[in-house]
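hi! just following up on the protien thing from before. the input was this:
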Amino acid sequence: MCKTFAEVLQIGAAGEVLVDMPIGLPEGDERGIERAARRVLGPRASSIFTVPARSAVYAADYLEACAKNVVAQGKKISKQAWYLCAKMQEVDKLLNEDIRLQQRVFEAHPELLFRLLHGAPLETTKKTREGQAARIQILESKGCKALELVAAVQAHYRKSEVAIDDVLDAAVLFWVAVNGSVPYLSNTKRDEQGILINFRVPKGAQQPSQAF
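and the predicted 3d structure came back as:
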């Protein structure tokens, strides 16, 4: 495991890196990519949360983040989003400090990837045994040794350190990165820092009928 995203980049220094963390933090309205993804996720649509405005992400505390997001987007941010803000900052700072990283570090959403690889929305959540088994089957069908990976993680880490659903999310991101990814939307916008806002998906994945 890596303690920082910078360590992840060192490990994957020669190739594409996909991260399940928002990239591109517009100050104004919602990014749009989330709406496109939710439309195809069916019962798993709630797995995609609304990304806070940049000012909220960099706020000192939750109350300040809510206040700043009300100004920027007209609503408060969720506690779930706030707990991720430190990680959002970490990724955002690295991409702004070294713009070359923007050519190989991209955002991807595990649930969207599983849905596209499976060809239909998954009925069970990744927190259940049934849901994990379904995701393992999808990965195995693509040549990713998910069962072996899960067994190795369970042998080296406690459950409190690494959750199986997080391992499967990382595995699908890795598989797509290794096999090549493409932008989900063909027409996307940039945030105020010039960073593109999009999800990466497997090559050959069905694209939305329209841009958002």
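The chain has one domain: 14-202.
Residues 26 and 72 are 9 Å apart (CA to CA).
cheers
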